[in-house]
Amino acid sequence: MLTPFHLAFNVTDLSEARKFYCDLLGCEEGRSTESWIDFNFFGHQLSLHLGQPFESKATGHVGEHMVLMPHFGVILQMPEWQSLAEKLTSAKLDFVISPTVRFEGEPGEQANMFFFDPSGNPIEIKGFSNINAVFSS
Question: Residue 43: beta bridge partners?
Fold first, then answer.
């Protein structure tokens, strides 16, 4: 059993963040004040604070893509990933990398999607059929 991680970062609007993380991604809201909100991000704690979001640039070369660095995300079991991908596609979310499978047939085969939150924070969601293959090489 993995233990939850905690990640704190800035957003520009807590109301927009609340709609995005709760309504679209399905996260549960935890504690909050006028300047920050905690979310249960797929079993992990995100603390979103009012402020200037971190800068990111497409400097990470992964497969055929240049991905934004830094970024954060989560790894889901494939059925949960597929359900979220369908929900985000139906909501017409603007993807940086549309839901796709990469490294097909290789160790570490994974589904992947990449997008921004309303404050421009880059998020990557991965899906694995075999969660034990996350660190396969």
Answer: none
Greater confidence (78 vs 108) lies with: 78
Which amino acid belongs to residue 104?
Answer: E
Rounded CA gap, 90 and 137, in Å? Answer: 33
Residue 18 Cα to chain centre, angstroms: 15
User: Cis before residue 4, ω within 30 degrees of 0?
Assistant: no
1-21 pLDDT, tens digit each: 679 999 999 999 999 999 999
- Straight-line distance from the first to the last Cα atom of the chain, in angstroms, rounded to the nearest whole number: 22
Compute the mean pLDDT over every residue in the chain, rounded to the nearest whole number: 93
In the block, residue with structure tokens 């597929």: 82
Residue recorded with tokens 């963040």: 17
Residue 115 CB partners (closer than 8 Å, separation 6+): 88, 93, 94, 95, 96, 122, 123
- What residues contact residue 38 under an 8 Å CB cut-off, 6+ apart? 29, 30, 31, 32, 45, 46, 47, 48
